[in-house]
Design goal:
It is a multi-pass membrane protein. Keywords: Membrane, Transmembrane, Transmembrane helix. By secondary structure, the chain is mainly alpha-helical. The chain has one domain (about 10-135). The protein contains five helices and no strands. The chain has helices at about 10-40, 45-50, 60-80, 90-110, 115-135. The longest helix has 30 residues, at about 10-40. The radius of gyration is 16 Å and the shape is elongated. The two termini are about 20 Å apart.
Length: about 140
């Protein structure tokens, strides 16, 4: 694990950085798995595995959602890990939170339980707040 950069040193910031890493790794795994599933499986296969919402979207839109989830997952980890443009980490979290707002809306419209999207959305907001605190100091 990388040490805190000089701009974010201090015990409080170090604890926030650890919390950010934990939240981001969990989120990244979840979104890589979800996005990877949507990207590699057909619309019909997704439907039979419980993703009935795919009936509301074209195959292209489903792949676009999957790509956004995968890019967001990478954005949660890579900028912070490499130190290259770390501001992209909280911005990726904001993007994923917005994506989850859309997911909640779709599930509510379909009268389906939105719980997974709500949980991921809340975690994405937590990641964004922690990320901005850590990166901006």
């Amino acid at each position: 694990m990388r040490q805190c950069s000089p701009a974010i040193e201090g015990k409080g910031n170090h604890i926030m950085q650890i919390a950010l890493w934990i939240v981001n790794v969990v989120l990244a795994i979840a979104f890589l798995m979800a996005g990877g599933t949507k990207l590699t499986r057909s619309r019909e296969t997704l439907r039979t595995t419980g993703m009935a919402w795919v009936d509301d979207f074209s195959a292209g839109v489903i792949k676009l959602i999957a790509s956004a989830e995968i890019l967001g997952a990478l954005g949660l980890v890579l900028p912070l890990a490499t130190g290259i443009a770390p501001i992209l980490t909280p911005l990726a979290a904001v993007g994923l939170a917005i994506t989850m707002v859309g997911a909640v809306a779709v599930h509510l419209r379909r009268k389906e339980a939105p719980t997974p999207a709500v949980v991921l959305g809340v975690l994405a907001v937590v990641s964004a707040v922690l990320g901005f605190l850590v990166v901006l100091g």
